[in-house]
Amino acid sequence: MVLVSACLLGEACRYDGRSQRSERVLAALADKDVIPVCPEVASGLPVPRPPVDLRGGTGVDVWAGRAVAVERAAGIDRTEAFQQGARLALEAAQRFGATVALLKEKSPSCGSQRVYESGQLRAGEGITTALLRAKDITVLSDEDL
Ligand code: SF4
Question: What SS3 state is found at 108?
């Protein structure tokens, strides 16, 4: 059972209204049971939606209260929605017994190695990934396939 970023499976749930369908991901998951999840849409955010950057740190820092998630252009704070989406993703993983997640790299929610902070790509993880890892769920990047 694998928790997977829904956009990688072809769901048009990205901020820009597109999907990020990956044939490599689909092939890797061909014999697995998957739980598709889009934390941002699960939290009630619309499609499309303004792009969001982390500021002050990465996902771990957000949970520690040292960083926030804000709309890149308008500066509106979306931290609460992103945290709610992360909690819903964790709930789905726990309900279905998933101990592994395969998530989309560079997303402020799903990134597992690199995320945008204040417009710059840097090492770190997104808000959902940080919560899943804190609960001992292994998070892999689509870029590792
Ligand atoms: S939040 Fe995750 S699943 Fe949703 S569009 Fe962004 S990368 Fe894909």
Answer: coil
